[in-house]
User: What shape does this take?
Amino acid sequence: MNALSSFRPLKDPPLVKLRFAALAALTLLSACRHTGDLIDPKAGGGIYAVRSDCPIAGVPAGTGDITLFNPVDSTDSRAIDVTATITDVRATCTDTATEAVSTATFTIVALRRDPGPARQVVLPYFNVVLRGGAAVSAKSVGGAVLNFGAGDVHAWTRINATVRLNRSAAALPADVRRILTAERKPGEADAAADPLADPAIRTAVANATFEQLVGFQLTQDQLRYNATR
Assistant: This one.
């Protein structure tokens, strides 16, 4: 079964390669424990970290800003027409018996060069699910509508973007869970060994880890401008 039920697969490769977040703290523990709690020194010490089935929300580098020019074939600063930025990204996630539903909410703030009559600008944005820090599992594209009032140079809008993950896709295999949660006591051979040093364990953790990424759907020229401005 596909990991997602509400988005079409993305055929094209992602425009931006993303660094896979380190997952050394993915030990799965009892719900009564909290991130940052200290493990009983008698059990070997350490720190508890809780892994969630919910995707991590973020904005890929280089896609959080967009610049429109007039004329469109110019990149001169004097030709800048509208600029916009994605900010205040927040995510909420709800677990059900079969899926995790994540909604990323973010604000787009825009500035136009010239105050004038009322104007509407529609900016394309994407909502992507990334698996293992590299593979795009699904993608949708929407349009953010910004309305500039007469004489106003500022406009903003708030966007909600939702993804649904099958919990089975985000769950670690039982044998991997057992290795990650195994008690390690000082003096034992595996006490200082990092389970994620094993490529098979690392791959299993990556395959069960998802990110929800939002950003502007930029052209190659717009990406190049963001990288060089």
About this structure: The longest strand covers residues 80-95.
